[in-house]
Every structure is written in C-alpha cells, then in structure tokens.
C-alpha cells in the first residue's frame, strides 16, 4: 500500500500543477502493477478529462461505477469527471450504490444530497435530507428547511395539480411544526438573516396556498418581525394583506396612519392611493411569469384603440372597492387623499427649507400627479377647461385655482375624458423639481398618457416656466437652468410633441436642441468625457428630429437628413465619449445605412457582455450583423451569447446548492426560476437558431451533399437546444434601450433593417415615452402591442428554426419521407401569417421586395414538397409532374417579382453617393439564403432519377419527364437571369462616380435649404472642429462598398452553382 | 418615490439603464448569483415608481473575530438619479444589516483616481484605512476605506500600522 501511496504523490502533483499529460504517463505506469485499483483508474479518468478526452474519461468512470465504489476519494473524483461531462445521474447512482453499502455514513449521505440538489432532483434530495434529518435529530434544522424547500419546488414542478397542493400542505405542516416549537421560535426571534429565511419561506408557502387568514395571523405574530427591515415595512405588508383579504377600509386607515406618522415613502403613498383608486391589474399574461409588471407607462394610448381609455376604465379591470365607499363615498376618499398629499407636500417644503435636498419632496409631489392620473382613469377628473389657447402663465394660474376649486368643491363634473388635472399636477412637479435629472423619468408614466389640448398646454407651460425663471440680471445660463430646459424638451417629446409641418422645421428644432447641448458642454468642461452630461439626452432627441425631417420629405428621399443625424451624433460623441443613448442611436443609424463596422464599433464601445447578451445583443446588434452579411460578427456575437447560456446551464446547480447551504431558502426558489427563465429565453432560442442557419449559409464550398449533411445535423442540434413549444418562451430583451424611431421587429432578425425601410420609415415617430417598448420589462408586459410582438416573434422563430429541417428534406434522397416532412412542416407554417404568401403565392399589394422574398422563402419548400412527392409516387407521373410544374412556375414568378421590385431602388442607388432603402438588404438576404437554397435544390432535382435497388422504378411518361426537366431548366435560367440582373445593377453602383457624387452630397449637407443653411450645419455639427463631413461620408461610403462587395460575392458563388 | 428592496435575479434583465454607464462594471453571471445566493440581505435594489432600476448595492459579510465585517462590493446609481442621496440610502441599508449581523466595520475599495467617490464616502463617515498597491489589475492602486460600526466601540478596526499593502496580503478576497 505504501508503494502505491508513493506512486500517487507525483500523480497528484502533476494534476495540481496542471500537467495532465505527465499525470497520465505516471498513472499508466502505476496501473501496470495495480490494474484494478479504483483510485488510479479514476485519476486516469480525471487526467483524460483534462486532455479533452471526455468520452474516454467517462468510459473509465462508468466501469468504476459498475463496481459500486465506496471509497470517498474515488467518489469525489468521479464527481469531478462526471460534472465536466454533465453526467450528474451517473454520479448520483454511484453515491446511491455506495450508501447501500454504508447506510449510516452521514458524510456520504450529505455528499449525495449535494449531488442531488446540484442536479435539481428535488424529490430525491428531499428523501436524502429526510434521512439526514432523522439521523441527526433536532440539531439539524437546516435539513428540515432543506426538505421544506424541496417540497415547495416539487409543488412548483407539479403545476396546478392536486398533488402540488398536497406537497405544499406537507411543507407547511413541517415548517409550522418547527416554528411552533418554543425553542425553535426563540431561535428565530434572535435570528439574523439566515434563520429569517425560514420564516420568509413559510410565508411564501401560505401565499402559495392562498391561505389568507393564516397569512394574516402570521404577519401579526412575533416571528414575522424578523423578515422586515423596519416596523413601517411590516405595517405596510400587514395593510396590503388586509386589502388582499377585502378589508380595504382597514387597509386605508392603516396606511393613512402610517403616512401621517412617518416620512412619506413612495411605497406607502402608492399603496394608499391604490386602495382608494386602483389602477389596472399588473399581473403578467404569461403563465410562467416570475416577474411582476410595472404599470405600463402609456396605458391610455396603448390600450388597444381606446378599449381602456382613462375615462372609461373597464369594469372588470379597474374597480373601486365598494366596501370602502358607502360611508364616505369615493369622492370623499379622493378628497381626503388630496388633502393628505397636500399636507405632506407642505411638510416636505418645510424640510426642504431646512436645507435637506429637494429630492425629499419627490414622493408627495409625485403622489399628486399619481392621484390625478387615477382620477382620470376612473372618470373622476375635473375638466379644467384646458384648450389649445391656454398657453400663458396667467392661464396656468387660473388652472391652478380651478384645480383647487375642483377638489375642494366636491361638485365633480364627470366629464370623464379629461387628463387636464394630470397635466396641471405634472407642471407643478416640473416647477418644483425640473432641475433634477430624473424629473422627466419620474413623470414619464403620466405625461406619456396625456392626450388632447392639455398636452399642448403642458408643453407650452414647461417652456414658459423655463423662460420665466430667467431673471433680467441672469444672462448667462447655468446648469440648473439648462437641466430645466432639457427636462422641458424631454417631457415635450414624451408628450409626442412638437409636431412638425415640414422637414425644415424639424431641422431647426434639432439645431435648437444641439445649441442647448453645446451650452451644457461649455459649462461642464471639467466633466470627465465618460460621465453623463446635463444635456446628453437632447442629442438622441435631435437625431430623432432629423430622422423625422427625413420622413417628412417626399419620396424618393435623399439621405441628407439621415446623414445630418449621423453628423450630430458624431459631433456630440467627441464631448461625451461613452453615452449609451448616443452610441445606441449611432449604432442603429449606421446599421440602417449598411455601415456594419461603425455600427458594431458603437455597440462594442458599450462593453456589452455576460447577461447583457440575453437582454441587448439579440435585438440590437444581431439584426445589423445579419442584414449586412457580417459573418464573423454573427459568429462571434452568437458564440458569446451561447457561452452565457451554456455556462449557466453548467453552473446553475452549483449556485443553487450554495443558496441551500447558506440557508437562503427563498433565494433557492428564485434561482431555480431564474434558471428556467434563462433556459426559455427568446434571445437564447434566437441565438441557437441563427447560429444554425448561419452555419448553413456560410458553408465554404456549398454542395447539395454538404448542405444535406449540415442541415440534418443542425436540425437535431436545434431540436435538443430549443425549449419545447415556442409558447413557453420568455422575452427578457430590454427593449427600452431602443431609440424612439426604431421599433422592435418581431419578424426574422435578418429582415429587420429591410422592414424598417419598407414600413417604419413611413410611419411617424412617437415620443419615447409613447413607445410601448419604453418601459422596464416591456417585452413581457400585458400591453396588446407586447402580446402581439411575442406572438409574432414566436411564429418567426418557429419558422426560422424549421429551416434546417426543410432544407434537409428538400435535398433528401428519401423522397417519400422527405415529402411527408415538408408537407407537415409547411402545414405548421401555414398557420403563421408572417411567412404565408397570399393565395397563389404572390404578395397582396404591388409587392415590395421584402414581401416577394418572404413568398419565395415559402415557395422554395412548397415546390420541394411537390418535387419530392412526385419522385416518391412514380406510379402517377403525369399528375405529380403537373403539380411540380405549377410550383416551379410560381417560383419563377416570385423570382421575377423580387428582382423587378428591387431594381428601381438599385438604379437610384447608382446615382447617389450614399444609397438608402430596403432593396440592398433584400438583395443581401436573397443572396445569402433563398438563392443558395434554390440553386442547391435545382442541382438535386435536375439529376436523372434512378430506380432504387430492389425496386422496379417507374419512369415518368416521356411527355411529363420532358415538361418537368424543361420546367426545372426554365427555373434555373430564371434564377441565373435574376442573379445576373442584380449583379449588373450592383456593378453599376460600384462603378458610379462616387467622388463626384460625394462632392454633391457634402454640399447638400451644408446647403440643403435656401437660407441660413450653413448656419444650421454649424449649429448641428460643425461647431465641433474634429468632425469632418468628408471623413464621415467616406466612412459610410466605404462600408457600403464593402457590404455591396459581400453581396456580389455571394451572388457570384451561386452563379457558379448553376 | 424610491423603493428599496432585495436585489432579485430578475433585476439582471432590467438593470441596463444603470449598467450601460461607463463606470459601472457588468460582472459575469455567477458573480451576481453567488452574491444573491450567499448574502441576499446585502444586495439591494432601488427602483422608481415605474419599476425602473435607479441603482443598487451588492455586498457581503466576511472575516473572523474582530475582522468580521460588512463589505461593499459594488454600489452604483443610474446617471439620471445621481446627486439625490440614493447611494447614501443604499449604504445606510448595508450598514444597518452589518450592525444587525454584529460586524465590527464596513469596508470598500475604491480607485485612487475616483476622487468624487472618495469624497462621497468620506461624507458618509468612511476614512482611508490603507492603500492596496496595484489592486486594479496592477494598473491602479485602491484605497481600502472603512467605517467602524457600533460593536467596535474603540474604533480599533480603523487603526493600522501598515498603510500600504499588496493584494496578496489582503485578509479576505
């Protein structure tokens, strides 16, 4: 034995010093003498694992497990190898076997418990924890909570079944028994954070069981104290519990009392107002949702076409508690709330005078806006008579009085359609706190809901308030004044204003915003360039105004205003190098112009990484890279995203075990849900799918055989990687980071840019606050737009993820089987309106390139189904050939339609320095995918058919065979001709006199308008000396040329296949 | 209108308005999850009325004997919510948890060049305990700042003979 130990030492040293090859040599030598030694063999497995021979390592481990090892060291090392190979079940089986041999070994049981927990096998873990609990008795309370937590997790897995309730009741009874034990209760009372977790878990169980009475008793009891940070927190929870049980009156009384006694926190104020005038339910529509949704910022305007207009809240959705109001009436309570808020405001004003920051006044001031918002929602608002003409400060005074009279008089006119009160309260908020950077964000959820004359009135008052604040002596602006101006403009934007009559007006407005920005930069010269400046928000606004200017031009539009927007962003970023909103706006704009490198540079500058790949990369960067055929970028980005998901899949068990060991039972639940959420992430599914499609479209030497092989393998990979059923997807994307002019796209990512040019470009840009995606967690909100977005995303993802299957079937030599797959898949896709051509496979309208492309995408596989079916049914040659011919003709028409629809824009592009529009992106998408798929299919379909061995082949009738091959030949020619036409036009763009055109473009940037144009260009960007228009334009031109060249290369590649 | 609550895993999906700021580091996923799994009481999120993240603090409790202390790993506030006392509010919460856990002091590391932050911590009662040479990837020194909690009656946790140490000499990671 000693001899063996002597041999083991250098092996351990080699492994510790990360020298597995040396270790392997030493082990092999040692094994010659001790060939059956389990420790040596398991060490060999470890070393093999470290030299990337995981399969061999697992085989060695499997042979050891078959011998039922009991040695702890052997088991530990087995764990290390199996963990790397994701073989948790084998490890658990090994421990279970060992425990059979040593049933009283507490340590071994504990290791088993850890392995089961790490593998998320909560049923087994519960049993093992129970054994340990019984073995160790009262001194192992942690095992009891471990059992309770496992029961809760199993109940969760059981879903809405009677078994789930049984498990919860069992969990409750175990926890209750422990908490009722005086000794244990005493321990809890002295508890720190860890033991309070047991109490928190118990409360969670009561809530899950919807046991309102017991929850209430428990909240009032001594144990609940340990889970609240302050007495106020506890009192708030108790009041909310009362409200939940229908005792609204008691809840209102408690909350009022708390507000009168302590500092007015927002939690208390909003809870108080919620009891009096509730808002719509916030529950998320998804059944598997774990996150609560904040009230949508723009609920008036986003509720589908006025269904939930503030004046007419749905009876079902917004109910005033009837119990609450018989005695005092809803108006009485509203009046009382108004009075209380006023008192709190007064108190905060006094606090402010004691030199405590004005921010302390935020809660009561915001509560006043919130109250008005609720009143409007319930149709209780006063019509203050705001009209478009009410723009003066005097009028404002009148409105304030009116407001007071309205609330004091109690004689409410239920005009029911007015948000005047919200506007008036928002103005008060601005007047007091307009100097805070957060002012706009604070009231966004209210201002973004305003409609009608009051929004114009508010916008006027905001600017009036800014100019009125100037004292005659104060000529120079100061930062506080600029901050107020900035907020006034940002709030105006949230109001959906200003409305421009023409492009020139929008441009002048942009120049005004940039001027304020410049003043701020001047005043903040000492500020670190990486810090956020006071007026940074105005640059995104200015670029949005210039994009609006571009939209206001009559088609065909010149790119001048878009380039101006780019120049504004460029100039501002010299002073604010790391501003995320500016970077994201620049990235989107560069992406729209096909300037992939600059777009990616802007994205990379934000150092997006780790979890941000789930929330940002998929919807911001991926569409740009796919649209511009940036293959390396796609591979890199999706590789990083996949690493996030795979690493979490690997590590989540360890983290959950950590939470168990630390006794943070409720965090265990949270971490399990987080793991599930990430596994069901839409961004994850998108990353896997796009990686698969990318692998196919970027095959270096594509051939039918290589494509068939790749498609079949990827179809399998995708099947195992994607969550089953798209309906269970979670939308973690942080859509609030998108510029106001760039709505999220729910179709295929590769077509997002083309789609913007096609549709969004002609739609007016809403103010940021009015964008449904501007709120936190908007992707999962219950707004109709969000629901629609999710449905479309799920459909297009399903369509996209089926591509390898469709492609594999289209190229398969197993005709009958392939035809079946194609028909089934197409039938599934036919439910998806996103990909279905209209009727006979033609776009409904005149047919944009994008629409033709989508038809073609479907048409290829529709034709493939017919071809495969024909080849599988040789006994009905003429009928089958007829169907194939029809499909081929349709494909021909679609090809012609596609080319014809994009050629005019390509022709135009050859006369411009910087081209714009959807066509180049449609051409790129076609060259990258549809043209390639079709070329490969044509190769396979055109091959002469041979009878299968052992079967008597039936040839088509001579006439049908001739028709079919001539149909295929025609299609081949049509594809070739289409590619040739596209190449000719792309060639014309490449050979245009770009230098002369650039000169023209440069001068149009400076002289686009008759008078004062050069002044405007100075105000917009040339104030920054480092911005050289020529450089910026050359940069875009250069990147567009690169993109063009990539498209041409793709098309040439396909030409060679034909 | 600020609500301070425990930081949750789901906050990682909505904290971009805080983390897209240049000065806020986005750590790898296990980093956040380990903190939440082990020290949930020391990880707090401040959110505004609409549920948007305003800022957060991540911390832990560590050490042994008289070195048992709360540690601030990251405290950050979204640019638009700065200068409103939010960082102080979050630090106060962490200090109160440390008090409850009977820690002797709270400490934090800050870049020597980050003068604004250093001044802010000084205002909150923190003082420079020592310099950790080359703490930030060997590129920059860190100031180890401390504030004594009530358990450290004689403020011994603030006294040291070695005012400059190297990262490998730190008592805890």
UniProtKB/TrEMBL annotation, chain A:
Biased-composition ranges, Basic and acidic residues, are 393-414
The annotated region (Disordered) lies at: 389-417
Origin superkingdom: Eukaryota
Show the Pfam families listed in the entry: NatB_MDM20
UniProt xrefs under Gene3D superfamilies: 1.25.40.1040
Q: Does the keyword Plastid apply?
A: no
UniProt key word Glycoprotein: no
GO terms for cellular component = NatB complex
Ordered alphabetically, the record's keywords are: TPR repeat
TPR repeat intervals: 72-105
Q: Matching InterPro entries, A to Z?
A: NAA25_NatB_aux_su, TPR-like_helical_dom_sf, TPR_rpt
Q: Into which family does the record put it?
A: Belongs to the MDM20/NAA25 family.
Q: Which PANTHER family match?
A: N-ALPHA-ACETYLTRANSFERASE 25, NATB AUXILIARY SUBUNIT (PTHR22767:SF3), N-TERMINAL ACETYLTRANSFERASE-RELATED (PTHR22767)
Record protein name field: Uncharacterized protein
Whose protein is this, by species? Coccomyxa viridis
From TrEMBL, chain B:
Q: Where is this region: Disordered?
A: 154-173
**Gene3D superfamilies the UniProt entry points to:** 3.40.630.30
Q: Where are the transmembrane segments?
A: none
Q: Which UniProt keywords apply?
A: Acyltransferase, Transferase
Q: Fetch the CDD domains from UniProt.
A: NAT_SF
| KW Glycosyltransferase (keyword) present | no
| N-acetyltransferase domain span | 2-150
Name of the protein in question: G11374 protein
Task: Quote the InterPro entries the UniProt record gives.
Answer: Acyl_CoA_acyltransferase, GNAT_dom, NatB_acetyltransferase_subunit
Q: Where is the composition biased (Basic residues)?
A: 154-164
